[in-house]
Amino acid sequence: MGTRRPLVAGNWKMNGSRAESATLLDGVKKGVSSAFRAEVAVCPPFILLPLAAEKLAGSGIAWGGQNLSVHSAGAYTGEVSGPMLKDYGCTYVIVGHSERRAFYSESDTLVAEKFAAAQNAGLIPILCVGETLQEREAGQTEAVVARQLEAVLDKHGIGGFKNAVIAYEPVWAIGTGKTATPQQAQDVHRFIRGRLAARDKAVAENTRILYGGSMKGGNAGELLAQPDIDGGLIGGASLQADEFIAIGRAAG
Ligand code: PGA
Prior knowledge:
The protein is of the alpha/beta class. It has 11 helices and 8 strands. The chain has helices spanning 18-31, 49-56, 82-87, 98-103, 108-120, 133-137, 141-156, 182-197, 201-206, 217-224, 241-250, and strands at residues 7-11, 39-43, 62-65, 92-95, 124-129, 165-168, 208-212, 231-234. It has an 8-stranded parallel barrel, surrounded by 6 helices. Helix 3 (82-87) links the parallel strand 3 (62-65) and strand 4. The mean pLDDT is 96. Residues 11, 169, 174-175, 212-215, 233-237 line the site of 2-phosphoglycolic acid.
């Protein structure tokens, strides 16, 4: 992890009633110690953000959205904009999650636009990249990750990464219980940092690269011990306060 402050971010996806979410937020708040070296954040569904803002204000735990519109306001039925997320106190917003890419046809170009929309609204994008099982088996992991990353780099330059987080999430590890081995993850994280370093060494050194894909309390330690893994983007395990907190603790 080097000198980078780890980030452990929960991606709740489309889960949680109001009551369940209140309990989860209380549990996370209670369990996250100010002694953690890691920064902790949760990304609930949009409709639960006011509740997160109310519960987490002043706690040191950040919150964020799971997606945003490329537009800032206007006639875009069903969308939520970056300025709206900012207005509710969000620090982060997930951009280009593989589920958005796969189920909502988000292209590399659209993801690059969302990355900019987030920054224009004063939010820190968590840019997700990662290969499918088929792509990994075909030896295309680096090519896919490079394509997803370069789409943003080409549009916004390396400067865009001065205030951004990257999450490497192999699609085959998401929600499957199959975690990448620490070495598999480290290899891709190092590759990503190398691509950034080719443009600017200092930015590469300072950018946090999270791992995502079936991370839980029991496997977080060995993943987070890798030199280029700076935290986690946690799906399933972020819905259980104890598991999520265990990951935060493992991050130091
Ligand atoms: P998972 O999800 O931890 O449930 O595998 C991670 C993610 O999709 O961000």
